[in-house]
Amino acid sequence: MTDERDDTAAAQRPSGKRSARRSRSATSGASDTGSIATIDRTARKDEKKSGRADRDRSRNPFKRLFKFLREVIAELRKVIWPNRKQMITYTAVVLVFVIFMVAFISGLDLAFIKGVDWLFG
After folding, report:
1. Full DSSP string of the chain
2. pLDDT tens-digit profile of 7-49?
3. For a FRET experiment, which of 7, 79, 87, 113 has its CA 20 to 30 Å from that of 69?
4. What is the Cβ-side half-sphere exposure of residue 6, based on CA atoms within 13 angstroms?
5. CA 25, 28, 32, 33: dihedral to nearest 10 degrees?
6. Cβ contacts of 73 within 8 Å, gap of 6 or more
C-alpha cells in the first residue's frame, strides 16, 4: 500500500528537465557525457587556426542580437519556474533575512559608534 502511494506521488511531482537529463546520462554511460563538449571545443580550435571563425561569424549586429535573444528564450524554457506558493515562501524568507541583516549591521554600526565615542571621547 505504501509503495503504491510513493509511486503515484512520484508520478504527480514535476520531474523537470534536469533530472531527466541526469537519468539519461547515468544510463548511457560515462563516455557519452563529455563527448559533445570535446567535439565543440576541438572544432572551435580548428576554426581559429584556419581563420574560418571570422568568416562564419556574422558581422550584422541585428542577426547577432536576434540569435542571442533566441538562445535566451531557449534557455528560459529550460528553467523550472516556482509556483505561487513557493514564490510567496521564497519572498518571505528573503524579506526576513534582509530585515535581520539590516538590524544586525545597524546594531554593529551603533556599537562601533559608541565604542569610538568612548575611546576618543
Report:
1. -HHHHHHHHHHHS--HHHHHHHHHHHHH-GGGTSHHHHHHHHHHHHHHHHTHHHHHS---HHHHHHHHHHHHHHHHHH-----HHHHHHHHHHHHHHHHHHHHHHHHHHHHHHHHHHHHH-
2. 555 556 556 556 555 555 555 554 445 445 455 555 555 555 6
3. 87
4. 3
5. 10
6. none
